[in-house]
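User: Design a sequence. Structure:
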């Protein structure tokens, strides 16, 4: 089966519909019977619980970063590495996901990696500086692997409701991040002002998710039996524009997860207040993460939508950094609206720029693997600049450079084109 490269595409909403039709036709071609899921409600619950665990290990550290750094004597550069390491692992370990899934099955891998995520959370909260970094690495690697597998499971077992389920999946990610950002400091105070317990608490939802996911290991799920090779993706400029947009907008997101509470504490907020501001900003993302892709597919392309959500993001970031604290919640809401839109549009572009489901899978792997590796440089740069300057004022230049780069990449990625590749059956 050969699919010739194309340069143009119909309206984006029609393109998305056409992609889903192509994917369903591929499914019919390679499967003699539909997937069998005896208890879909249990799979749905399991997916939600797993997704809830894909951000707390990242967002729980930020409100406690100052306290952890003081307790262990970490420099700002080491603190920057601590916020960078999990994000770097998202990109570096993402390519392992399909390899492990082919060897052991996606369900077994998700269960096993949930347990390694729990181990990473315990390691970083219980064994000093060495455990902190080793546990952060293990947690980031675990999240990177699971994050690649879940969308495929959604597509396979909820093919007729893939859009809705992707929305539910994204909302669960945001909710998990918000809960961890807002409650980690109060939890640590409740249990005797111990940051160890505040960080270690998040092993509980990971174990609960593993318990509810366990029945999926024994289920008979449908699987695609035909492999496809996609050629030319790394040579296609549009694919790189999508990847750069994914990476640059993610860099700003992980700067917020890793450093926004520290920035706000430096401006005079308490750790609890700073965590609540981050939590509230992430909660707002629930709305824009659903609305932005729908609005973006109403026009001829996504360029205007990309510019709007990125300007909202930059406005919120600069407001949180420089504006009077009296209006802080307004800037946090603006930031949440922008970042919810930038993230969901990055995922939408992967679909809209792909001619079929096989290209989309490969473009997703490229965008996440390379993009998240690129994204890790942002939090690390913030730590270095803060260490050099002793303050937060100069961080605005990092926001501006990354934001401008994301707009430039987005203007290319938002054009109504397909990536020029060929897809052939092995």
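Assistant: Done.
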């Amino acid at each position: 089966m050969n699919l010739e490269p194309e340069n143009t595409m119909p309206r984006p909403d029609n393109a998305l519909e056409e992609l889903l039709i192509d994917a369903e036709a591929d499914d019919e071609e390679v499967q003699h019977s539909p997937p069998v899921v005896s208890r879909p409600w249990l799979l749905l619950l399991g997916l939600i619980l797993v997704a809830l665990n894909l951000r707390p290990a990242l967002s729980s550290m930020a409100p406690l970063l100052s306290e952890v750094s003081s307790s262990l004597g970490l420099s700002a550069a080491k603190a920057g590495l601590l916020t960078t390491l999990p994000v770097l692992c998202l990109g570096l370990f993402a390519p392992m996901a399909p390899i492990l899934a082919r060897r052991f099955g996606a369900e077994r891998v998700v269960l096993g990696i949930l347990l390694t995520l729990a181990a990473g959370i315990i390691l970083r909260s219980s064994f000093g500086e060495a455990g902190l970094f080793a546990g952060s690495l293990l947690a980031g690697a675990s999240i990177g692997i699971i994050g690649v597998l879940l969308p495929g499971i959604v597509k396979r077992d909820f093919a007729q409701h893939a859009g809705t389920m992707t929305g539910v999946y994204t909302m669960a990610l945001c909710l998990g991040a918000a809960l961890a950002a807002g409650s980690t400091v109060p939890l640590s105070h409740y249990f005797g002002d111990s940051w160890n317990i505040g960080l270690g608490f998040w092993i509980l939802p990971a174990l609960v998710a593993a318990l509810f996911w366990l029945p999926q290991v024994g289920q008979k799920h449908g699987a695609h039996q035909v492999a496809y090779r996609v050629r030319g993706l790394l040579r296609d400029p549009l694919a790189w524009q999508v990847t750069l947009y994914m990476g640059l907008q993610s860099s700003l997101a992980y700067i917020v997860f890793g450093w926004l509470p520290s920035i706000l504490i430096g401006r005079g907020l308490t750790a609890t207040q700073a965590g609540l501001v981050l939590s509230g900003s992430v909660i707002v993302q629930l709305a824009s993460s659903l609305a932005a892709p729908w609005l973006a597919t109403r026009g001829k392309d996504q360029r205007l939508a990309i510019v709007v959500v990125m300007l909202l993001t930059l406005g919120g970031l600069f407001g949180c950094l420089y504006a009077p604290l009296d209006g802080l919640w307004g800037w946090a809401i603006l930031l949440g609206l922008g970042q919810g839109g930038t993230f969901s549009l990055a995922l939408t572009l992967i679909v809209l720029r792909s001619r079929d489901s096989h290209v989309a899978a490969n473009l997703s792997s490229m965008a996440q693997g390379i993009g998240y590796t690129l994204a890790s440089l942002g939090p690390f740069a913030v730590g270095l600049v803060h260490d050099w300057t002793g303050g937060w004022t100069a961080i605005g230049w990092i926001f501006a450079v990354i934001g401008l780069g994301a707009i430039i990449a987005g203007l290319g990625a938002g054009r109504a084109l397909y990536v020029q590749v060929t897809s052939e059956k092995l």
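DSSP finds 18 helices and three strands in the chain. The chain has two domains: 1-31+228-426, 35-225.
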